[in-house]
Design brief:
The chain is about 85% helix and about 0% strand. The chain is mainly α and about 80 residues long. The chain is elongated. The model has no long low-confidence stretch (mean pLDDT about 90).
C-alpha cells in the first residue's frame, strides 16, 4: 500500500513541475506514475507496477505528447 502512495506522490510532483514547462514531458511521466499507482493499490508486485508504468509511459509518449505539442505550438504561433 505504501508503494501506491509513493507512485502518487511522484506523479503529483511531476505534474506540478509540468506547470513550469510546456514540453509535456513531465506531465506524461506524472500521468504514468498515477496509472502505475492503480495496481499498487490493488496489491500487485513491484514488477507489475513498473511494467504498467513503462507501458503507459510509452503509449503517452507515442500518442498524447505529440498531439499536445502540436496543439501548444499552434496556439503560440497564433499570437
Amino acid at each position: 500500500m505504501i508503494a501506491a502512495y509513493i507512485w502518487m506522490s511522484i506523479g503529483i510532483f511531476f505534474l506540478i513541475v509540468e506547470i513550469f514547462t510546456i514540453d509535456f514531458l513531465f506531465a506524461a511521466i506524472g500521468i504514468s506514475c498515477l496509472i502505475a499507482s492503480i495496481p499498487a493499490f490493488m496489491g500487485a508486485g513491484i514488477v507489475t507496477q513498473v511494467v504498467v508504468f513503462a507501458i503507459s509511459a510509452t503509449i503517452i509518449f507515442a500518442t498524447i505528447r505529440p498531439m499536445a505539442k502540436k496543439f501548444l505550438q499552434g496556439k503560440n504561433h497564433a499570437r
